Amino acid sequence: MTLDTSGRASPAASSARLIYHTPDVLIDRSTHYCPGCGHGIIHRLLAEVMTEFDLPAHTIAVAPVGCAVFAYDYLDVDFVEAPHGRAPAVATGIRRVRPEAFVLTYQGDGDLAAIGTAEIIHAAARGERITAIFVNNGIYGMTGGQMAPTTLLGQRTTSSPGGRDAALMGYPIRITEMLAQLPGVTYAARGTIADVASIGRLKAMIKRACQVQIEGGGFAIVEALSNCPVGWGMTPEESMEHLKGPVVEAFPVGVIVDRASARARAGAAGSDGRSAQTTGEAGSGQAAGPDGQPNALAESEA
């Protein structure tokens, strides 16, 4: 605050406005994540959204195994720790006994897309009213940098030292597109932390996924493409360039499905005697999936 000689606030101080305030739910402590790791950015976005919706006091979050587990050290909400890959199953149990709670899972790609494939698919198929934040950095970070289901073709890891070979190890799995096909999934999107504009769009996706649960919708998932400088053998700057290039090329960003918004558009169009598809309302420039929803996979393969 700027004071004049009398000790009173000066006009300059009274006209100042607050640009940013760290959310109270984000615990102020030194990070133990590796230099350049993207988890901290995603924690901040999640903390901002939860604060804007007044969710912290009502939230029960589920922590996985892997680097993502440490979300409970930085987000001041109630956490339950699940066995490896079982966060959606634990979240389902919480939803059954605490129907009034806001239920959240925060999972990495090895936890969600490999060890927990069955759990995430069946939670989505049931349309569980939970919100899943899926951090995809393309590698098993905590356990030594092994190949994950999302590891890119040609990428070297400790378990694919010659690079991922499709003939031997298969292709990267777009798990979010797989889930988006299930009718129980109300919202599915993929964003990235690659640059400032992308971070803003990722926050909007997280906000929408939380809103879906608040409004009583079904399963919602946001995949956040992140980096792992140490696991990738890159500097933080190099890892961000890699994220913006090959990673986004392999995993297209955008809203994959938003069934709640589509139903609302269809209702509005019906009241006007128009069809959403014939008026080009299936999506904002995106190809439409079989149910008329914006589909990032369909768009990328068109």
- Taking all Cα atoms into account, the compactness measure Rg is 21 Å
Named at the architecture level, the CATH assignment of the largest domain is 3-Layer(aba) Sandwich
Number of helices: 12
How would you sum up the major sheet? 7 strands, mixed
Strand order of the largest sheet: 2-1-3-4-8-7-9
| Proportion of residues in helical segments | 25-40%
Distance between the termini: 56 Å
The secondary-structure element order is HHEEHEHHEEEHHEHEHHEHH
Could you tell me the number of beta strands?
9
CATH topology of the largest domain: Rossmann fold
Describe this structure in words.
- The protein is 37% helix and 15% strand.
- The chain has 302 residues and is of the alpha/beta class.
- The protein has a seven-stranded mixed sheet, sandwiched between helices. It has a two-stranded antiparallel sheet with strand order 5-6.
- The termini are far apart.
- The relative contact order is 0.11.
